[in-house]
Amino acid sequence: MSGDSKGAGADDSGSAEELKGPDLVRKALAEAKAASRAKGTAPRKSNVRSLRPKVVRDSLEPMRFGEAIQNLVAQKGWEDTTTKADVLANWDKVVGPEIADHCRPVSLEDGELVLVAESTAWATQLRLLTKTLLRRVQDHAGAGIASKVTVRGPSQPDWRKGKLRVQGRGPRDTYG
User: What residue ranges do the domains of the chain occupy?
Assistant: First the structure.
């Protein structure tokens, strides 16, 4: 028995001495895989494509300008900003031509839409229509874009010219 164990050990050490470096590692890996398959615990081949993001185009392929801009907006996270700009730019389509003829949007920041009416009468009318205006903006751009509408009346003309100011009633003084 002792002779048999020496003979078997000598054969194993002889084959181990023959394999060195990467060949030894490859052999050990192959043996481990075979043992794993025999036990039924071999790892399944995963679909590598499903784990990677789907690449639609090569970056050097030509694409339409609109597609390129949409990709840039998505990459930079500018969707919210472009949606707000769309509401301001297409105001007549959002609220209709009748209302758009008598007011203009000034800003849309932090969920507050600021409008300027052409007259105080229209400012009052728009204040009564704030819920309707808000619903139309949300239907056009989404629920998170605007949550409050502020209506301002028209600004008064500024008669002042230059840096210097004189106290008094203004231009009415000269008309007697």
Answer: 79-152
Q: What is the mean pLDDT of the chain?
A: 79
pLDDT tens digit string along 30-47? 888 888 888 777 666 655
**Run of H or E residues at 109:** strand 103-109
Fold of 79-152: GMP Synthetase; Chain A, domain 3 (3.30.300)
State which residues of the chain have pLDDT below 50. 1-14, 16, 49, 52, 176
Report the C-alpha gap between 59 and 34 in whole angstroms.
42
